[in-house]
Write a structure and sequence with these properties.
The chain has helices spanning 18-28, 49-54, 69-81, 93-96, 101-107, 132-139, 159-182, 192-199, 201-210, 240-250, 260-265, 267-278, 283-292, 303-307, 310-314, 356-362, 367-375, and strands spanning 9-12, 32-37, 59-63, 84-87, 112-117, 187-191, 221-225, 231-235, 297-299, 318-322, 328-332. By secondary structure, it is α/β, with parallel strands linked by helices.
């Protein structure tokens, strides 16, 4: 079977989260991903084995000390054979080590260089240090995560890192498609801030219309608790027919016929009425009842729950892999189903420097040269 990106070679020097997540998705689509890491240290994400393994499957690992000139020469020889390079340095660093797009383009005009940074390569924020929470705050995203008193809540999922990894995939695939027409590569500038701002599009539209940053949700859309204190979610966003089914299931005939605008106008009172009813039985009983009534309802699952989830099992969405050292890792499969060229996990996460000899030989280095690189701690 031919995979969509079979024959594409990607040099992945972007570490920690966005870059590795991006390159893992591209690996599942068939790209050969060569992960470039610091000798002896590797990607800093290796300090957290489970985290590292979750976003680095299907790659080859080589070590290069890019502070040394011989290592940069090795990189440039690899660039001649590559289609894509990713880097996640702060703006200006790639230029200092010979990994900036103008340098790479001169070596290989077909190369696509994807830079992933907090604020992009230009603008007044470009040199600011930051992490996911900072980008969420500045983009307005953090306003969406708040308690009933309006206090911001620190999300436990790094949405800026993940979204920028996805936008990097979109940018790289777009550049590959453009190269088919022009024969030339280009620079792809991915900003975590920009990606989060894009995800704020509907909030900006709502604010323009109403002066409020977010929509007022239906009382049927929220988190409720059963008598056992277990939370579960209702998902009636605006659909009057789902509200009718909920009222029938709960015996609330007097509330039937209320349209979404009427319900949102009385949200607090209606939400309290629903909670009072849900407080009479354990959450699981309500979930089973509402599923039978065809009402959008869902239990709140943990990672442990997901491993045993029947839908996850049926779709083979979580798989176990074993690396050469015998270490096991759970892998979440590529999320998009392609009917003719489905994505395939290419293998377990690599050990540090596992593929030094293989990759360097592929670009013409001899065993003697590779041994000398190792002796000089270039690799």
């Amino acid at each position: 079977m031919t995979l969509p990106l079979e024959g594409i070679r990607l040099l992945d020097s972007a570490h920690q989260y966005p870059g590795p997540y991006c390159s893992m998705l591209l690996s599942d689509l068939g790209a050969e991903v060569i992960k470039i890491e610091q000798p002896g240290k590797g990607d800093t994400a290796r300090r957290q084995t489970g985290f590292f393994n979750a976003i680095n499957r299907g790659k080859k690992s080589i070590t290069l000390d890019l502070k040394k000139e011989p290592a940069r020469k090795i990189l440039h020889r690899l660039v001649k054979t590559a289609d894509v390079l990713t880097e996640g340095f702060r703006p200006g660093v790639a230029q200092r080590i010979g990994m900036d797009y103008p340098t790479l383009e001169a070596i290989n005009p077909r190369i696509i260089c994807c830079s992933i940074s907090g604020f992009g390569q230009n603008g007044p924020y470009r040199d600011l240090p930051g992490h996911d929470l900072n980008y969420q705050a500045l983009s307005g995203m953090l306003c969406a995560f708040s308690d009933n008193n309006g206090n911001p809540i620190h999300p436990k999922v790094a949405v800026g890192d993940l979204s920028s990894g996805m936008f990097a995939v979109i940018g790289i695939l777009s550049a590959l498609a453009a190269r088919e027409k022009t024969g030339k590569g280009q620079h792809v500038d991915v900003s975590m801030f920009n990606g989060l701002l894009s995800w704020m599009s509907t909030a900006m539209g709502i604010h323009q219309d109403t002066g409020k940053p977010f929509r007022v949700y239906d009382p049927g859309y929220g988190i409720y608790r059963g008598s056992d204190g277990t939370p579960f979610t209702l998902g009636i966003a605006h659909e009057d027919w789902f509200w009718e089914r909920l009222c029938t299931a709960l015996g609330l005939d007097e509330l039937k016929g209320m349209a979404n605008p009427q319900r949102t106008a009385k949200k607090e009172a209606l939400a309290q009425k629903l909670q009072d009813i849900f407080s009479t039985k354990p959450a699981e009983e309500w979930i089973e009842l509402l599923i039978r009534a065809d009402v959008p309802v869902a239990r709140i699952q943990s990672p442990e729950d997901l491993v045993n989830d029947p839908h996850v099992k049926d779709q083979n969405l979580i798989q176990e892999m074993v690396n050469p050292a015998g270490e096991k890792s759970l892998q979440v499969a590529f999320p998009v189903k392609l009917s003719k060229t489905p994505a395939v996990m290419q293998g377990p996460p690599p050990m540090l420097g596992q593929n030094n000899e293989q990759v360097l030989k592929s670009v013409g280095y001899s065993e003697r040269e590779i041994e000398e690189f190792a002796r000089l701690e270039v690799i």
